[in-house]
Amino acid sequence: MNNKKMNQIIDEAYENYEKSYEMGKHLEGTGLLWMAKETKGTFIYRSKTDPEFSEKWGLKIEERELSLEERTKILVSQSDNKRDFYDRNHKLIIEEKSVLDASNIPAKLITITYNNEKIESYE
Predict the structure, then answer these.
(1) Contact partners, residue 69, CB within 8 Å, separation at least 6
(2) CA–CA gap between residue 50 and residue 56 (Å, rounded)
(3) Which residues have CB under 8 Å from 37's CB, separation 6+?
(4) Which helix (H) or strand (E) holds 62?
(5) Which of 18, 21, 31, 42 is the most exposed place for a label (fewest CB within 10 A)?
(6) How far is CA 4 from CA 1, 111, 119, in A?
(7) Residue 80: HSE in the Cβ half-sphere, 13 Å Cα cutoff
(8) Considering the entire predicted model, what is its pTM?
(9) Structure-derived torsion over alpha carbons of residues 24, 30, 32, 33, reported in degrees to the nearest 10
(10) pLDDT in tens, 31-56
(11) Residue 81's pLDDT is what?
């Protein structure tokens, strides 16, 4: 999935947050009378790091580093000659990080869940 779709989803979630903020709904259940509105950057950061905040606004953002094996499988899937990546026993030969980096193979998986829709993107 491309970054454009992910950005659209984040924008939609933040817009919903802004609307709720304007109506005071962000304060429900907090016992507070006033709370500063999160910037979009802070909203994204808290959606990644604060499970309670993430659940409240329905936006879950998870990031994780891909293993060398996962990255090698991506490299193999993009290759015209897949046999170059396997030994005589048909076992995948794991590439070095420098080779994967030089080949622009993604190192991170980003998963966004919003409104029960899950989107994955590699970076």
Answers:
(1) 92, 94
(2) 10
(3) 18, 21, 26
(4) strand 59-65
(5) 31
(6) 8, 14, 11
(7) 0
(8) 0.77
(9) 20
(10) 545 567 889 999 999 999 999 989 98
(11) 79
